[in-house]
Design a protein that fits this description.
Strand content: 25-35%
Shape: globular
CATH topology of the largest domain: D-amino Acid Aminotransferase, Chain A, domain 1
Bound molecules: adenosine-5'-diphosphate, magnesium ion
Order of helices and strands: EHEEHEEEEHHHEHHEEHEEEEHEHEEHH
Structural class: alpha+beta
Strand order of the largest sheet: 6-5-4-3-2-1-7
CATH architecture of the largest domain: 2-Layer Sandwich
CATH class of the largest domain: Alpha Beta
Number of domains: 3
Distance between the termini: 39 Å
Number of strands: 17
CATH superfamily of the largest domain: ATP-grasp fold, B domain
Number of helices: 12
Largest sheet: 7 strands, mixed
């Protein structure tokens, strides 16, 4: 009898991190224990259409029409969780295949931001990672900072600016940036990742250009004080009880860790683990756990910090609820350096998904009759 659980590994997606997601998913599918799980590869094209089958990953990677992959849609009926797959034999026919749990290996918009997590909730499926609230909070750099501050965590001094405010009071905002933030200043779209739309502005002219650029991506922006610091990251795993990994350091090859330095230029360095001394390391781990709990994350997250070069103070920059997961990505490397190797990490995340689902199933959704 086949006792293996069917795990849908979902990859690709509509965000700018499509390719990164494919790389992460390839490593994860290689590492999943096939004695315990049967892998159902599910690809999301850049246009948002879904496909499944043994060829799904290659057709996205090579951007060609799939041969051994078919159109698929997720069923949102929790009494029969699974996929409806377009039949290759019957014209206009669909076949149904069950799914037991999901590993969404998607980064950024429509993958890491609570939208697809809402679909899994509707479908009643266990899934790896954070729920709707933590995913969307972890995507919004302004909202996450409110919760971090509430939890007593240090964040970078910043202003939050909406499109309409900028269009109507540009001069006032320029004065405020000059007084409260100073230059250089970082301008960021509130909801994005991979450094897309982020600029470092050295003066007010550059700030105007930076705001216009960021407004192409979002109606809400952050203008942040520049921190002259090292970039330290730390992994977290767990649900209500969580553990932090040993920290690592990113050494960007550009002026800052922009898109080019992250994905296109291999001169950026990762140091894992980074030796910071036990006091600093413990502080980073403790802050990571607090940041994870502040947004009510689940499963996994990577928390990114600045370590101020002048006074060694630690500042929380952001949390990523679905961090890069190739076998050379920071998150798995930091856990490997902490004694949890890649395949064991993947296995644990799948277990955590089921544990969280079972616990939430045990809660009442209405008062007893
Ligand atoms: N306030 C800041 N001071 C110094 N560098 C910053 C600041 N904010 C962002 N950066 C640089 O820009 C990069 C991307 O910013 P980040 O907020 O992490 O956005 P993303 O979600 O796109 O990764 C950081 O890794 C860092 O190199
Ligand atoms: Mg970042």
């Amino acid at each position: 009898m086949n006792q293996r659980k069917r795990v849908a590994v979902i990859f690709g997606g509509r965000s700018g991190e499509h390719i990164v997601s494919l790389r992460s998913a390839s490593s994860i599918m290689e590492a999943i224990d096939q004695e315990k799980y049967e892998i159902v590869p599910v690809g999301i094209n850049r246009d948002g259409s879904w496909l499944t089958g043994p060829d799904a990953w290659f057709s996205l990677w090579e951007n060609r029409r799939p041969e051994k992959a078919s159109t698929a849609v997720m069923v949102t009926d929790p009494t029969r969780p699974g996929l409806l797959i377009k039949s290759s034999e019957k014209a206009n026919g669909w076949v149904f295949e069950t799914i037991d749990l999901v590993f969404p290996v998607l980064h950024g918009t429509c993958g890491e931001d609570g939208t697809i997590q809402g679909l899994f909730e509707m479908a009643g499926l266990p899934y790896v990672g954070s729920g709707v609230l933590a995913s969307s909070t972890g995507m919004d750099k302004a909202v996450m900072k409110v919760l971090f501050k509430e939890a007593g965590l240090p964040v970078v001094p910043h202003l939050v600016l909406y499109r309409e405010q900028w269009l109507s009071h540009q001069g006032m905002w320029l004065d405020q940036v000059q007084e409260e933030i100073g230059y250089p200043a970082f301008v960021k779209p509130a909801n994005l990742g991979s450094s897309v739309g982020i600029s470092k502005a050295y003066d007010s002219q550059a700030l105007i250009a930076a705001v216009e650029e960021a407004l192409l991506y979002d109606h809400k922006l952050l203008i942040e004080q520049h921190v002259e610091g090292r970039e330290i990251e730390c992994g977290v795993i767990g649900n209500r009880e969580v553990t932090a990994s040993r920290p690592g350091e990113v050494i960007p090859c550009n002026d800052f860790y922009d898109y080019r330095a992250k994905y296109l230029d291999d001169r950026s360095g990762l140091v894992v683990p980074v030796e910071l001394g036990s006091d600093l390391e413990n502080k980073i781990k403790e802050y990571s756990v607090r940041a994870f709990q502040a947004i009510e994350a689940a499963g996994l997250a990577r928390v990114d910090f600045f370590l101020n070069r002048s006074d060694q103070s630690v500042i929380v920059n952001e949390i990523n609820t679905l961090p890069g997961f190739t076998n050379i990505s920071m998150y798995p490397k930091m856990f490997a350096a902490s004694g949890l190797k890649y395949s064991a990490l993947v296995d644990r995340l799948l277990e955590l998904a089921v544990e969280r689902h079972q616990y939430r199933q045990s809660l009442l959704s209405a008062p007893p009759e």
